[in-house]
UniProtKB/TrEMBL annotation:
Keywords: DNA-binding. SUPFAM superfamilies: lambda repressor-like DNA-binding domains. CDD domains: HTH_XRE. This is DNA-binding XRE family transcriptional regulator. SMART domains: HTH_XRE. One of its GO terms (molecular function) is DNA binding. Coiled coil: none annotated. It comes from Flavobacterium arsenatis.
Length: 99
């Protein structure tokens, strides 16, 4: 616990756990975090639309197994496919922010 006694905010905790911004370990953490967020947003939007993974796959020209992998944070996804899934399959708009 002494390693955390000087930590005063969340950013410092993330740096202590995963390294400084730009390091390989931090990049891996950031990538996995973003994939988790996308997977949760997809699950929530699909359930809100009351459709199955199979129905979503049919609407977007993908496979159920692909939708499942994304929802479980296991798959890589191209931006064009992500947009098609949300906009065509779920009727949602996607906004991107670059920081």
């Amino acid at each position: 616990m002494t390693a955390y006694k000087n930590i005063k905010n969340f950013d410092q905790l993330i740096e202590a756990e995963h390294g400084k911004i730009g390091t390989e370990t931090r990049n891996i953490y950031e990538e996995k975090s973003q994939m988790f967020i996308i997977s949760e947003m997809l699950k929530e939007a699909r359930k809100e639309a009351k459709i199955t993974q199979e129905q979503l796959a049919e609407k977007t020209g993908t496979k159920k197994s692909y939708i499942s992998r994304i929802e479980n944070g296991k798959g890589n996804i191209q931006l064009s496919t992500l947009i098609r899934i949300f906009e065509v399959g779920l009727g949602k708009r996607i906004g991107l922010t670059f920081l």
